[in-house]
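G., the chain you wanted modeled:
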Amino acid sequence: MLNEILNRLEENPGSGVIFDLDSTLFDNGPRTWRILSEFARHERRDLIEPMQHLQRHRLPYDLGAICELAVPGEGAAIAESVKGFWAKRFFSEDYIDFDEPITGAVEFVQACHQRHARVIYLTGRDVPGMIIGTSRSLRNWGFPIGVAGTELVLKPRFEMPDPEFKAEAIRSINTHTPNVVATFENEAKNAIAFREIWPDAVHLLLETNWDPKHPTELRETFDTIHDFRMET
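Predicted structure as tokens:
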């Protein structure tokens, strides 16, 4: 499917490709792991060893589920004690640099840009708290950013609900880039909104993590990919 998307871009230069960031282009697991490790060192030294053995990549969406992996049977209680410490750091640009790209993501986005696609990063991160770190992270990892044919779209304020923001954003994007060839997301509800606006595009979900409050059956109407490695 990824090669098919690149072929469509070659045939339709100037078309758009939309990428979510968190759990789509980037694995945020290392960011959360770093924050939890700091919490253990500063607040709960009894958790230092369990956190050291916690996996760093493709962690669950829910903080309680993450803590349960570290200390079975105590995940909910630990999550309650750490959530304030975690949220203050996770939703800031100070820890963004610990994110790591999903395998093949940099190369695929570069390939889209080289085919004269309009690369649009559409993320629920907010402008006041995360735009500088987000731009820096994309640049440092080698994603095309800050050059012709790229666009970075963030929420105007942290408090704005992600679904409301993305619904507004995709209507705006459609005014200047009506021919979108593909979209990439980890949340099915956002992909549904994309599909309503661009029914002829390819809409792919990443098999990373997603909000467990969203019904699983929503994902069953979309094709999924594990990462961005392309067939050769």
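The chain is about 45% helix and 15% strand.

Shout if anything looks off.
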